[in-house]
């Protein structure tokens, strides 16, 4: 029934125009090219670099996961080349990519999603650094490292999967923030 109704509405073009005005649809839909997919995949490594620095204890305790560190090693040098490198990377991606309307919306979405996941990883790291010493050297800290490892690892894999398909990935609360940031960047006159 809905398919039939959409076909009828498409003759007038009203349903298609209404769908394009939806805030999740994007302004300039087009296929995301492979260079943009690779750029987004590189930016998804930022939260992974942050987390692998803190989950060393988890990897030492479970050596079967040592292979996960190999993904972040090429990017650790560039991310830690200077103390202000993460800040520079953030502003370069936000001002140069997210605000640029010439870039496909889905690519800007994935770039901003990488930045938001990095913010989530930073919140977890700050939480870990501010744990009381009575908790920091107990089995509870091992549980926290394991949860941090798996949480960011699975989120990055999930986002990379949708990135290489060229689709939007939906993560509750985080995706809404990404959509709002892109919409706000467009309204600022990008």
From TrEMBL:
It is found in: Plastid, Chloroplast inner membrane; Plastid, Chloroplast membrane. Its main location: plastid. InterPro entries: Tic20 (IPR005691). It comes from the Eukaryota. Keywords: Chloroplast, Membrane, Plastid, Plastid inner membrane, Transmembrane, Transmembrane helix. It is a multi-pass membrane protein. The chain crosses the membrane at residues 109-127, 147-169. One of its GO terms (cellular component) is chloroplast inner membrane. PANTHER family: HIT-TYPE ZINC FINGER FAMILY PROTEIN-RELATED (PTHR33510:SF9), PROTEIN TIC 20-II, CHLOROPLASTIC (PTHR33510). Belongs to the Tic20 family. Involved in protein precursor import into chloroplasts. This is Protein TIC 20.
């Amino acid at each position: 029934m809905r398919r039939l109704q959409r076909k009828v509405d498409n003759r007038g073009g009203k349903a298609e125009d209404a769908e394009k005005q939806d805030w999740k649809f994007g302004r300039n839909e087009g296929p995301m090219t492979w260079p943009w997919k690779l750029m987004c995949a590189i930016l998804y490594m930022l939260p992974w670099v942050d987390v692998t620095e803190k989950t060393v204890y988890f990897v030492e305790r479970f050596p079967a996961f040592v292979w996960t560190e190999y993904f972040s090693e090429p990017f650790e040098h560039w991310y830690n080349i200077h103390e202000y490198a993460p800040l520079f990377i953030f502003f370069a991606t936000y001002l140069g990519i997210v605000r640029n309307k010439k870039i496909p919306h889905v690519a800007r979405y994935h770039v901003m999603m990488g930045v938001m996941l990095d913010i989530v990883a930073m919140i977890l790291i700050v939480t870990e650094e501010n744990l009381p010493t009575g908790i920091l050297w107990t089995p509870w800290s091992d549980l926290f490292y394991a949860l941090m490892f798996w949480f960011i690892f699975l989120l990055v894999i999930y986002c990379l999967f949708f990135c290489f398909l060229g689709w939007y990935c939906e993560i509750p609360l985080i995706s809404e923030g990404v959509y709002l940031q892109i919409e706000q960047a467009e309204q600022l006159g990008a």
